Amino acid sequence: MKQNKVNVTRQYAKEKLGDDRSGHDFYHVDRVAKIAKKLAEQEGLKDTVIIEAASYLHDVIDDKVVENVAVEKENLQKFLKEQNFSVEEICEIFEIIENISFSKELEEGKADLTLSGKIVQDADRIDALGAIGILRTAYYGGHTQSPLYDPNIAPQTFKTKQAYREKSTVINHFYEKLFKLPATMNTQAGEKEAQERLIFMKEFLKKFYDEWNLS
Ligand code: ADP
Ligand code: NI
Fold first, then answer.
1. Which of 66, 70, 186, 208 is geometrically suited to a Cys-Cys bond with 118, CB 3.0 to 4.6 A?
2. pLDDT, tens only, 18-55
3. What is the pTM of this model?
């Protein structure tokens, strides 16, 4: 029964995100769900239904991914009710998926999340880092027609979601967001994984600059 609830949200995410070409496709949320489940186990949590469901659903109401956020919120409410999620469970899922994003944190500061929310947030941020994170960032940059790198454009510090969403370069995004993520992790296991992925990204950048500068 519990596993069935996870499976139906997984299927829902597959239908909604399958065609995404911005780096937020079904396999992104599938990885987030797996990372989150692992973190939950490390935190000693036994019941991971809400964590897994919220992981699968966290991008299906995101304005980067869907055209009409209000409609998609309604669709999701209706779907969860039909699948016999309780009112409390639906509230918790929405509470998580509406509050975990980095762009929201830029404007409003760190969100006050439940442990389940903290775990999903960590998992989403871990998937923005490492080898996968590097590729997703380059892929997103192509999607938004951003330059790969321009030595004349310095990285910026953004304070609003709108400014953050303006085009930057792929390499600048490492400094503008990705390298800041490890310090925002909520769980110890999440922070450890994020730090390891950060080391790899810094090595990658070093090689990138060596090749760029022919040194
Ligand atoms: P959130 O949904 O937490 O606000 P974002 O939408 O900023 O997160 O980012 C999701 C992923 O999309 C990032 O980890 C990154 O890979 C990619 N991305 C977002 N903005 C940019 C950008 N300006 N340049 C390159 N990649 C980006
Ligand atoms: Ni995500």
1. 186
2. 888 888 899 999 999 999 999 999 999 999 999 999 99
3. 0.95
C-alpha span between 13 and 215 (Å, rounded): 45
Tell which one of 31, 173, 178, 180 to mutate to probe ligand 1, the residue whose CB is within 8 A of the most ligand atoms.
173
Minimum-distance ligand to the CA of 180?
Answer: 1
Say if ligand 1 is within 6 A of residue 174 CB: no
What's the per-residue H, E or C state across the chain? CHHHHHHHHHHHHHHHHCCCCCCCCHHHHHHHHHHHHHHHHHCCCCCCHHHHHHHHHCCCCCCCCCCCHHHHHHHHHHHHHHCCCCHHHHHHHHHHHCCCCHHHHHHHCCCCCCHHHHHHHHHHHHCCCHHHHHHHHHHHHHHCCCCCCCCCCCCCCCCCHHHHHCCCCHHHHHHHCHHHCHHHCCCHHHHHHHHHHHHHHHHHHHHHHHHHCCC
Pocket test for ligand 1, best of 32, 57, 140, 197 (most atoms within 8 A of CB): 140
